[in-house]
Specification:
The protein is built from three helices and no strands. With about 190 residues, it is mainly alpha-helical. The relative contact order is 0.02.
């Protein structure tokens, strides 16, 4: 074995690779070479060129990386602020949900009270209707009693008229007979 570095030979690498696949030891590390490179040394040179002039090979420059880092820091700060606002909004939404739930419970309680009051009003309405019916019945009885009184007064008037007629006839008869008569009324007695 010599201490001189040996140059890479693709055929030798392939043979070594094939031998390592057959050996019982751990598998050897294999790397795919970039396009246009025939050996590892070509790949190293190509990578160095890419690092010297990254913009020509589509890689980010230090300036691009700084700009992206600053943009990431700005976005990170914005994300934190949005996260805090989101938490505050979530807290506000939870408070609003709790308020809405309390109001819903109050509305349900008030609806129950209204239904109870409507039931009471309905019962009172039934009582009022019953009392009105009783009042109408009493009024009808009073009207019947007035009619009876009117009928009795009419009969009394007729009886007074008959009494007056009888008294007149009796007076005429007594005049014919030549006798005197005194009349007593119920009022005098």
């Amino acid at each position: 074995m010599s201490s001189e570095p040996r140059e890479s030979n693709p055929d030798v690498e392939q043979d070594e690779h094939a031998e390592s696949e057959h050996s019982a030891g751990p598998p050897a590390l294999t790397l795919a070479l970039p396009d246009g490179c025939e050996s590892v040394s070509d790949a190293i040179v190509t990578n160095r060129e890419m690092l010297r002039e990254p913009q020509q090979h589509g890689l980010a420059t230090d300036e691009d990386i700084t700009h992206l880092s600053e943009a990431m820091e700005g976005l990170s700060t914005k994300v934190e602020k949005v996260g805090h606002k989101h938490e505050e909004s979530r807290s506000d939404v939870e408070e609003l949900q709790e308020t809405v739930e309390q109001q819903r419970q109050r509305i349900e309680e008030q609806q129950a009270q209204i239904e109870d009051q409507q039931a009471q009003i309905g019962e009172q309405g039934d009582q009022i209707t019953h009392l009105q019916q009783q009042l109408e019945d009493k009024q009808h009885q009073i009207d019947e009693q007035r009619q009876q009184i009117d009928d009795q007064l009419h009969q009394i008037d007729q009886q007074h008229q008959q009494i007056d007629e009888l008294q007149s006839m009796v007076t005429q008869l007594m005049d014919i007979l030549g006798t005197d008569a005194e009349w007593e009324t119920f009022d005098d007695a």
